[in-house]
Amino acid sequence: MNRLAQTALLFLLGATLLHAGLTDLYLRYVKAGLRPLVLLAGVALIATAAATLWYERRHSAARQQHHHEPRISWLLALPVLALILVAPPALGSYSAAHTGTALTKPFGFPDLPAGGPLRLGVADYAGRAVYDDGRSLRDRELRITGFVTLDRTGAPYLVRMGLNCCAADAQPVKIALTGNVPPVLSPDTWLEITGRYTPRRTKDPVNDGPIPYLDVTRARPVPAPADPYDETWNN
Length: 235
What we know:
Blueprint: H1 3-22, H2 35-59, H3 77-85, H4 93-97, E1 118-120, H5 122-131, E2 142-150, E3 156-162, E4 171-179, E5 190-203, E6 210-221
Helix pairs in contact: 1-2, 1-3
Pfam family, one: DUF1980_C
Region (Disordered): 201-235
Domain DUF1980: 131-229
């Protein structure tokens, strides 16, 4: 590929990163805290493209020959265009069902605000229920949002995928549901669950990791959040 084509691809890739970083698209690939690096990378690539174009125009007159590579090399631009035009879905129930829970013991359990209902993340509830025996959760009305996944027996779990860095290393944290669970649940449906702590637990069928139950009193479908991943479990 000649220098002009290289410049075009650098510019397209830089513009793609800027587009992703200035919208919520980047959340499909990396954790929220990496947004400044995504934007910086986009600016650097566009600046490199501009410098390459300037260098090419300045020195093209001195060259006697200009070699062109096969036009098929322009197909390298297709992945870049795909990133611009097609946003990949966040990892969902299929990944969760085939990956064991990644719940780990937190460093501590900060005090929870008074009043109710108390909103918690999936990982926060699971960590307190398993490793603090639910001491801070007892007699509290809780609201937790996540997506549904089903195991091989059809048992429902409420799940959020957590990131260490990017979507490639996403792992699930799961809560098993009991009580007033809707009779029909579709995988990948996002639910806001209202319920209470129960000491009941089970083991993940994939890796035998601990999964706490939540006693459901109400469940309602909600739209998927702008950031579908949960980073609290690895903080």
